[in-house]
């Protein structure tokens, strides 16, 4: 598959958050973008146009009038962005990561990340930059505004950063009088970043973890049960299960794993959005965000 380097105005709308109608006005009135045309006279935009629009959008959202931005040359545009970036690090970093993604620029990604962690904890970077970035990228992928290669590039770099944090936390002592957590993704599920970050949080809080990773059928989990008296299973549901309700998945888990003992299961991820705890047995916990996870772990430590 060819990596996407040509974008429609609808793609630009998805990528920047600015309506296509507004982009057309900016283009016509202020000559902010220079679209190209195919041999059949269809307008399209290249990566340079996209990068410029992301920069313009950043300043526009900071309250600078579009007529003023239109008067900036490339040097003034960069200098102004740098000034605002000191106070708006998160939004600027998200744009910088998107730009790195489109250019497959590992160094640009690394430089932006290093600037972030100089002043923020990894938890803050993940929650306030990586999570919104991943959400945006998911939407862009679904709407066809980006190629799967772009999504995989940025996702793998984020995954690497989480793994480095996990390795550092693995060296710290763990509590011996608390449950052990077993982390896994259900069969067919490959979106691992959320589960990896949960791994990091558990280690950071002093818990012991058995990490199984992606694509694990429930039939394989009883092997872990044999080795631990107190065990909590945690799974992160992004696209799976697809062919059954979450309620049925929990029932299957109980039959395969808990064997009537109601062993604890914590579920996270987009698939649990909108579900109510009232529809599940007591041993099942629904955790909707990082804050809820942190709160639950603090309670468990006490």
What CATH architecture of the largest domain do you see?
Answer: 3-Layer(aba) Sandwich
How many strand units? 7
The name of the CATH topology of the largest domain is: Rossmann fold
| Strands side by side in the biggest sheet | 4-3-5-6-7
Task: Classify the secondary structure makeup into a structural class.
Answer: alpha/beta
| Oligomerization status of the protein chains | single chain
Q: Beta-sheet strand percentage?
A: 5-15%
Order of helices and strands: HHEEHHHHHHHEHEHEHEEH
User: Kindly, what is the distance between the CA atoms of the first and last residues, rounded to a whole number of angstroms?
Assistant: 52 Å
Walk me through the topology.
Layout: H1 9-16, H2 20-30, E1 36-37, E2 43-44, H3 47-61, H4 66-69, H5 74-85, H6 89-103, H7 106-119, H8 122-143, H9 148-169, E3 180-186, H10 193-204, E4 209-216, H11 222-225, E5 231-236, H12 246-258, E6 265-268, E7 284-286, H13 290-301
Parallel strand pairs: 3-4, 3-5, 5-6, 6-7
Antiparallel strand pairs: 1-2
Q: Could you characterize what this model shows?
A:
With about 300 residues, this protein is α/β, with parallel strands linked by helices. The protein folds into 3 domains: about 90 residues, Multidrug-efflux Transporter Regulator, Chain: A, Domain 2 (Orthogonal Bundle); about 80 residues, Methyltransferase, Methionine Synthase (B12-binding Domains), Chain A, domain 1 (Orthogonal Bundle); about 130 residues, Rossmann fold (3-Layer(aba) Sandwich), CATH 3.40.50.280. It is about 55% helix and about 10% strand. The protein contains 13 helices and 7 strands. It has a 5-stranded parallel beta sheet, with helices on one face. The protein is elongated and about 70 Å long.
């Amino acid at each position: 598959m060819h990596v996407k380097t040509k974008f429609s105005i609808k793609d630009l709308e998805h990528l920047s958050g600015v309506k296509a109608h507004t982009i057309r006005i900016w283009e016509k009135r202020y000559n902010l973008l220079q679209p190209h045309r195919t041999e059949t006279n269809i307008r399209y935009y290249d990566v340079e146009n996209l990068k410029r629009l992301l920069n313009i959008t950043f300043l526009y959202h900071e309250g600078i009038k579009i007529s003023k931005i239109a008067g900036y040359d490339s040097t003034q545009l960069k200098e102004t962005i740098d000034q605002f970036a000191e106070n708006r690090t998160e939004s600027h970093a998200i744009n910088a990561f998107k730009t790195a993604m489109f250019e497959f620029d590992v160094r640009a990604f690394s430089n932006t990340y290093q600037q972030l962690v100089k002043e923020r904890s990894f938890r803050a970077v993940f929650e306030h930059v990586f999570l919104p970035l991943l959400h945006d990228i998911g939407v862009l992928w679904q709407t066809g505004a980006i190629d799967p290669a772009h999504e995989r590039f940025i996702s793998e770099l984020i995954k690497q950063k989480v793994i480095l944090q996990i390795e550092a936390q693995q060296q710290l002592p763990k509590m011996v009088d608390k449950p052990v957590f077993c982390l896994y993704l259900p069969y067919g599920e490959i979106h691992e970043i959320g589960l990896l970050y949960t791994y990091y949080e558990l280690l950071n809080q002093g818990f012991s973890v058995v990490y199984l990773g992606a694509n694990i059928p429930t039939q394989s989990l009883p092997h872990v049960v044999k080795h631990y008296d107190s065990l909590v299973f945690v799974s992160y549901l992004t696209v799976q299960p697809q062919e059954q309700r979450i309620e049925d998945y929990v029932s299957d888990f109980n039959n395969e794993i808990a064997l009537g003992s109601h062993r604890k299961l914590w579920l996270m991820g987009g698939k649990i959005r909108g579900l109510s705890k009232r529809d599940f047995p007591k041993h099942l916990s629904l955790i909707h965000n990082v804050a809820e996870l942190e709160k639950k772990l603090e309670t468990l430590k006490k």
